[in-house]
Design a protein that fits this description.
With about 90 residues, this protein is of the alpha+beta class. The chain is built from 2 helices and 5 strands. Strands 1-2-3-4-5 form a 5-stranded mixed beta sheet. It is globular, with a radius of gyration of 12 Å.
């Protein structure tokens, strides 16, 4: 699955396009070392295909590469972070 980054001045989103449908995970950057993941949107056509999980894992891998932490405000991402103890190195909160 190909996931791309779209950045804005104070945040951005990770976007996955699958079978012509777009799923996203949005974030706000509070500092160079901290982001807040605030929303995950997966269209009904992609539910159950692991797209949300792939977006969450991608965000974790990007945080590790970039040396920053994630505050999980999005309920979906927060639930994923709780299930994956191996992500604790980048989860703040």
């Amino acid at each position: 699955m190909d996931i791309r980054l779209e950045e804005t001045g104070s945040g951005g989103r990770y976007v996955a396009t699958v079978d012509g449908h777009e799923a996203e995970m949005t974030y706000s950057r509070t500092s160079p070392k901290l982001i807040i993941i605030d929303h995950t949107g997966v269209p009904d056509a992609l539910r159950g295909k692991g797209v949300g999980q792939a977006l969450a894992l991608h965000a974790v891998e990007e945080a590790r590469r970039g040396g920053w932490k994630i505050i999980p405000l999005c309920p979906f991402f927060k639930a994923q972070a709780t299930r994956h103890e191996e992500w604790r190195d980048v989860i703040n909160g």
